[in-house]
């Protein structure tokens, strides 16, 4: 299994240890080599043999057990791991790692690994909220360790509150993301990237508005890609159903005006600005503070032009690389080039919104990137995350 991606799972002693079995099994289904290390107390909750059977690997608990092959086990596992997950993570293991204590197989291996370490804490609410535990967590976060927040609910001890191990699917997703981002070059380190995503609302009265079909997916993937490449990312987002990406500063807005304000507040010190939002071009002429009552005749609403944010950015551009999107249904190339020029952009990413399996709401996209030097890069249909990666490759000139 040496060529496979490897996830090392540290299971520490809590009632949620049995849930780690589902994590092992989900990762094995993705053809990932899973190595389990259990603490002594974890073995009181679940037998090592169960983890052994599911992972199809020997389970390590004892540092001083006779090794099966000549290798110093905590070092070889530490090197082999692409990602290290501790689930459930007790207050004890968090405290040990935060304070440099390495006195068993799990804590020594965590100490020796260079892989990303993710903790999924699970414990009694009062323990979780204890200031010492929280300060250990903050310290570890500051050192680059990641945490998957525990959920709230009824705990094994009967208490209600925060401390339940996060949902297994959320944990698995996070591990898969970490595996994926591991090989991404950190070529945006030190760069500030500002992204807009999602739709905006044109409010009509306190309960009504018009908007568009943007789901925000493309912009959120761009934000994740920039983050994984090492950038300092700010995402200005219209209303979406998407989870805010971790490690990204998200500013939620609703209207064109609010988006403009948030973007301009962050514009001056940004290096790259990518506007993937579907911004409303019109706002209602006379907003009604009261809910509009129905009448017998037709309802006629008048809309007036609102800010073209991207155009304003183009006018104020200094050293920023400015990237726009063009959602088109006809004359893609002509329209995209016109927008590139009119809005003083460096790049424009054009997509054909008439295609049903790409564009709005879809996970895939098929785009053409136009550059200000007249180049045209036609990309095949690919996942939106991959499109995000190609956009940065183009900006950084690696194709
Ligand atoms: N954009 C913007 N402000 C607007 C409208 C669009 O900042 N009021 C930005 C979008 O975020 C996108 C680009 O401009 O990056 C192109 O958006 P699109 O709607 O395709 O183009 P428009 O310029 O609005 O032209 P049209 O609607 O006539 O196609």
Description:
By secondary structure, the protein is α/β, with parallel strands linked by helices. The protein folds into two domains: 6-182, 3-Layer(aba) Sandwich (Rossmann fold), CATH 3.40.50.1950; 192-398, Rossmann fold. It contains 14 helices and 21 strands. It has helices spanning 19-29, 42-45, 48-55, 73-80, 91-98, 105-112, 125-129, 131-142, 168-182, 217-228, 256-267, 309-315, 332-342, 384-395, and strands at residues 6-11, 33-38, 83-89, 116-121, 146-147, 151-154, 160-164, 192-197, 202-205, 208-210, 232-237, 249-252, 272-275, 282-284, 303-305, 321-328, 347-352, 364-365, 367-371, 376-378, 382-383. Strands 12-11-8-13-16-17-19-20 form an eight-stranded mixed sheet, sandwiched between helices. A five-stranded parallel sheet has the order 2-1-3-4-5, with helices on both faces. A hairpin with a 2-residue loop joins strand 9 and strand 10. Helix 1 runs parallel beside helix 3 (48-55) and helix 4 (73-80) packs across helix 6 (105-112). The chain is elongated. The two termini are 32 Å apart. The protein binds cytidine-5'-triphosphate. Cytidine-5'-triphosphate binds next to helix 12 and strand 16. The active site is at 157 (proton donor). This is Coenzyme A biosynthesis bifunctional protein CoaBC. Pathway: Cofactor biosynthesis; coenzyme A biosynthesis; CoA from (R)-pantothenate: step 3/5; Cofactor biosynthesis; coenzyme A biosynthesis; CoA from (R)-pantothenate: step 2/5. It holds the Pfam family Flavoprotein. Residues 193-399 are annotated as: Phosphopantothenate--cysteine ligase.
């Amino acid at each position: 299994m040496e060529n496979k991606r490897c996830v090392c799972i540290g299971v520490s002693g809590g009632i949620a240890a049995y849930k780690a079995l589902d994590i092992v099994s989900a990762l094995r289904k993705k053809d990932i080599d899973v190595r389990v290390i259990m603490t002594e107390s974890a073995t009181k909750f679940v037998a090592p043999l169960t983890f052994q059977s599911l992972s199809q690997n020997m389970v390590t608990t004892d540092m001083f057990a006779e090794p099966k092959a000549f290798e110093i086990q905590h070092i070889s596992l530490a090197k082999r791991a692409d990602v290290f997950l501790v689930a459930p993570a007790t207050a004890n293991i968090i405290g040990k790692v935060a304070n440099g204590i390495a006195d068993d197989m799990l804590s020594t291996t965590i100490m020796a690994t260079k892989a990303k370490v993710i903790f999924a804490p699970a414990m009694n609410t009062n323990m979780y909220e204890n200031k010492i535990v929280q300060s250990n967590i903050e310290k570890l976060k500051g050192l680059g360790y990641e945490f998957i927040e525990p959920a709230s609910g009824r705990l094994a001890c009967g208490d209600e509150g925060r401390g339940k191990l996060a949902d297994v699917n959320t944990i698995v997703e996070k591990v898969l993301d970490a595996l994926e981002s591991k090989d991404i070059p950190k070529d945006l380190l030190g760069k500030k990237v500002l992204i807009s995503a999602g739709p905006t609302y044109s409010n009509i009265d306190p309960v009504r508005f018009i908007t568009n079909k943007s789901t925000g997916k493309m912009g959120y993937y761009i934000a994740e890609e920039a983050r994984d490449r090492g950038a300092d990312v700010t995402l200005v987002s219209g209303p979406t159903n998407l989870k805010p990406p971790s490690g990204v500063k998200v500013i939620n807005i609703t209207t064109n005006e609010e988006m403009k304000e948030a973007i301009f507040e962050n514009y001056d010190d940004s290096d790259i600005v990518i506007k993937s939002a579907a911004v409303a071009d019109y706002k209602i002429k006379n907003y009604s503070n009261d809910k509009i009552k129905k009448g017998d005749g037709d309802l006629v609403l008048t809309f007036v032009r609102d800010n073209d944010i991207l155009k304003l950015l183009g006018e104020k551009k200094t050293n920023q690389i400015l990237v726009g999107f063009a959602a088109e249904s006809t004359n893609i190339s002509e329209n995209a080039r016109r927008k590139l020029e009119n809005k003083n952009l460096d790049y424009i990413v054009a997509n054909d919104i008439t295609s049903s399996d790409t564009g709005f709401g879809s996970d895939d996209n098929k785009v053409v990137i136009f550059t200000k030097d007249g180049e045209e890069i036609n990309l095949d249909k690919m996942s939106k995350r991959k499109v995000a990666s190609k956009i940065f490759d183009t900006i950084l000139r690696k194709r």
